[in-house]
Every structure is written in C-alpha cells, then in structure tokens.
Write a structure and sequence with these properties.
Layout: H1 3-32, H2 38-56, H3 58-61, H4 70-96, H5 106-127, H6 134-163, H7 166-186, H8 193-216, H9 220-226, E1 238-242, E2 245-249, E3 254-257, E4 260-264, H10 277-280, E5 291-295, H11 301-307, E6 314-319, H12 323-329, E7 343-347, H13 350-355, E8 361-366, H14 382-390, E9 392-401, H15 406-415, E10 418-422, E11 425-429, H16 437-446, E12 448-449, E13 452-453, H17 460-471, E14 476-477, H18 478-484
Helix pairs in contact: 1-2, 1-5, 1-6, 1-7, 1-9, 2-5, 4-5, 4-7, 4-9, 7-8, 15-18, 16-17
C-alpha cells in the first residue's frame, strides 16, 4: 500500500464531497426561492449522511485486514456509488420537485453523503498499519481531507461557479471521482483482472456521461423554478450563472433572481406590469433629489426611471451580483443606463458599501427582494436603516420596498420620525414628508426617458391612465402605519424577524 496515494485520495475525497455540497446549496436555495431555513435543513441532512456513512464503515473496519480484502472492495464500491449519485442527483431532483415538495428530497442528500462518509474511515483503515507510526499517518490523512474540503468549498464556491455552468462543474467532479476510484484500486498490491475490468467500466462510464451532460442538465433550472407548472420544452429566455447566484428571464420578460421574482422590463405607466408607478411616485414628494443611491439593479427598470427624475444629477447603483449588468446590457429598454453619464455602478454589498464610504445622498432607493428570503435582514433591520440615515443629507429620504411585511414597515417608521407608505414602499425621512398630487401630475407629463415622453395627455387612453394614477396615489400616513402594524416586531440584526 502507498501512504502517499492514500493522502492524495483523502484530499481529493474532501474536495469532491464539499464541492457537491456547495452545488446542492445553490440548487436548494434556487428551488426554494431563498427560504431562510433551506441551508439549515440541507446541512443537517448532509452531516447526518456523513455520520451515518462513517458509522456503517465500522463493520468493515472490524474485519481482519490481513485475512480479507473486503474493506478495499467496499471502499471502491462506495466511491463509485458516491460518484454516480453525485452526478445524477441534481437532474433527478429537478424531476422530483415537479411532483413532490422540495423538502421531501432532503433524505436523498443524506444517502449521497453517506457514500462519502464511508470513504475516510475505510481509507484510513486500509492504508494505515497498526504500528507506532499509525497516529502520525492518520493525522496526514485527516489533514489532507480537511485541506481538500476547504479547497472544495473555496474553489468551487468562489471560482468554479463564476466560470463554469452547473453541469460543467458536475462533469469536472465526475472526472475527479474517477481518479478517486482508480486510486483506491492502486492501493492494492496488484491489479487483478477484476480491478482492470472495473477501471475500464468506470472510464467508459465517464466518457458516456461526458457526452450526455447537455441532455442531463437541459432544462434543469426551468424544472427547479417552475416545479409542477413546468411543461415539456419550456425554456428560459436567458440564464446567467455566477458565484453570486442564478438569474433567469422567462419568455414573458419576468426576471428572477435565485428562483424568486425580481421584476420585469418595463418603464411604462399605461401597461404597468411591474408596479413601476412606485418609482414615479417619488416625483410627487416635496423634494428635489440630486444625489441618489439605488440599492439593487434588478431588471434596470427602476434605475432607468430614477435616473431620469427631473432633478437627479447623479445615481450610484450598488449591486452585489454583476450578472445583472450583463442582463441590462442585453435588454434594449434599459441598455442606455450603461452609457448614461449620470449613472455609476458599484459591484458590492450595499451594507458594506455604506460602512466604507463617507458619501451622503438626498435619496436612497431600494426595490429589494422579498422580506422572507435568507439574508434580507441585512437590508431591513433597524441597524441597517440607522446606517442609511447617517448617509442622508438633512431632509434626505429613504424609499424602500417592504414587500407587504408589517414588521419591515414598522421598523422603517420607527427608525425615522416621518414616513409615508405607498403600496409596498415606505418613504422615510428626518424631515416632514408631503405628497402633492398636482405636483405629481405635472411631473408625469414632463417625464421623459431616453428622449421619449412617459405619458401623452393628447392620447385618450394615456390621459385616462394619468387621471387614474393620480387619483389612486394617496399614501398612508406614519400614524396610520404604526396603528395598523401594532404588535409587529421591529426587525433587528439579532431577531431577523422577517426571515424567521
């Protein structure tokens, strides 16, 4: 036996096992739309499987290695099983979520993890003799496994997901799994005809699988997102993958970030499919903002409207996922944002950006994601809003999407002494806020985007739409908001109220 090969296999085993976990985290977050508890359940299933596999390996570890080669056969079989299950897990899951709740698939995570859990104990048992050097040799295996696991998490999570597709990474892991299988066979004293046959089989399987990757992963994201509503042949208009997440666009032009609705490409008020009226509503406030911070780019529609606000001189857009810039670049309706001299793009986390800058703004706009998604507390909590408040000029306004959460609405109205709610948004400030319908009507008639009028009062349909929009624009006062949300908790970094 060769300790060097065993150490290399231990590291490779850790790399492959943790890389698969990273991919499963992405898949479960995507299919759940980013529910906060998803990672906890996945981690529990994964660790249970690893533990169960390690416990099951005991029966073979108790065999007399000098008289039996069974541990080697079991180890080789377990690694072959782990590789096969890992490769087919995501395509199979994409089919399962069409007929069962995605939570029902967590046991399969445990099963696949159990195959990997068998690996390290049997590898140590087979390659480390029971002598005075066994402790040191065992430490080499564990150290290699820890290094491989860390490398798998970091390299797959921060590099491979940025340069490869989901199917491409699985193909790479299949190749590495093949080398683990062959390496285990090499641990034996000789290559028997059976081992040669198994190696040939594994190599042939690898070649066939590589050719089948496009077919296996074709439509995976569509099935994971649409689930029971998926129809054969349905394909997204656009899929953008990177380490920050997955952006999809359906044929109707709806944008989804991480499997959750993220808006549509539209800046028109007549056929308002994305409630873009909420962005135009700012023009009715008694403010003339010049310096604006937009948190989150999304489809770019909101930024397009804000950037063309009559008084705005400069817009800083902070977006954590650079894929949205690519998305905007491909859409004619918002593409001009990338050439607009008033608009600056910063790829960063909004909270980190605010913590690291001294800049101040007249207006902070965030049409951010649903209040129940994981990590959204970072953009809804009292601590975050107090940070935003410190970056506002006197009389500056925070205007954020609370996505119908009483807790989030109450938090904004608690942090700021003045607030108004319009539909799902809350405008908040240290100075009194007044919304003027006459001012708003006049602003809408003057509003132009890329040289084109938003509304033409000379056209009967648009004139009727204008009057309806102005008539329905009455906001809710801060006093009424606090009365309506009485009993709802204030969101903090600690309680994460909207997520849990």
């Amino acid at each position: 036996m060769n300790l060097g090969i065993a150490v290399a296999l231990s590291g490779l085993l850790g790399f492959v096992a943790l890389s698969y976990e990273i991919l499963w985290v992405r898949v479960y977050n995507f299919t759940s739309g980013g529910e906060a508890e998803t990672f906890g359940y996945l981690l529990a299933a994964y660790l249970f499987g690893i533990g169960a596999g390690s416990w099951l390996s005991r029966r073979w570890c108790e065999a007399d290695r000098a008289q039996s080669r069974e541990p080697l056969r079991v180890l080789a079989g377990a690694m072959l099983g782990a590789n096969l299950c890992g490769v087919f897990f995501i395509p199979i899951m994409a089919e399962l979520v069409r007929v069962v709740p995605y939570r029902a698939t967590y046991p399969f995570v445990a099963v696949v993890a159990a195959f990997f859990g068998v690996g390290l104990p049997l590898l140590a048992h087979f390659s480390v003799p029971a002598d005075r050097h066994s402790g040191a040799r065992l430490s080499y295996l564990y150290f290699a496994n820890i290094c491989g696991s860390a490398a798998g998490s970091l390299l797959t999570g921060f590099v491979l997901l940025d340069v490869m597709t989901l199917g491409g990474i699985v193909a790479l892991l299949a190749v590495l799994g093949f080398f683990i299988f062959v390496g285990i066979l090499l641990l034996g004293s000789r290559m028997s005809p059976l081992r040669v046959a198994l190696t040939t089989f594994a190599l042939g399987w690898l070649v066939l699988f590589s050719a089948a990757i496009p077919l296996m992963f074709d439509g995976v994201y569509e099935k994971l997102q649409l689930k029971g509503e998926y129809e054969s042949g349905t394909r997204f208009k656009r899929v953008i993958e990177n380490k920050s997440g997955v952006i999809t666009v359906d044929e109707a032009g709806a944008v989804f970030g991480g499997g959750a609705y993220d808006g549509r490409f539209n800046v028109g008020l007549v056929d308002d499919v994305n409630w873009i009226v909420r962005a135009y509503w700012l023009a009715g406030l008694d403010r003339n903002p010049k310096q604006v911070l937009v948190v989150g780019l999304g489809s770019g529609s909101w930024t397009q409207v804000v950037a063309h606000h009559p008084s705005v001189e400069h817009v800083t857009v902070v977006e954590i996922n650079p894929g949205y810039l690519d998305l905007v670049r491909r859409e004619p309706l918002v593409r001009s944002l990338l050439q607009n001299p008033k608009v600056e793009f910063v790829i960063d986390d909004a909270r980190r950006f605010l913590q690291g800058t001294e800049r101040r703004f007249d207006l902070v706009v965030q049409n951010t994601t649903h209040h129940w998604r994981a990590h959204v507390t970072n953009l809804l909590s009292r601590e975050y809003l107090e940070l935003v408040r410190r970056h506002l000029y006197p009389g500056g306004v925070f205007y954020g999407n609370m996505t119908q959460s009483d807790a989030a609405q109450r938090t904004a109205a608690t942090v700021f002494p003045h607030a108004l709610r319009f539909l799902t948004f809350v405008a908040a400030s240290d100075a009194p806020l007044h919304f003027d319908r006459v001012r708003w009507r006049e602003a809408l008639l003057r509003y132009r985007i890329d040289g084109r009028s938003v509304l033409d009062a000379g056209r009967p349909d648009q004139a009727a739409a204008l009057e309806r929009i102005v008539r329905e624009a009455q906001p809710e006062s801060r006093a009424d908001l606090l009365r309506r949300t009485e009993g709802a908790p204030v969101v903090t970094d600690d309680n994460m109220a909207t997520e849990w």
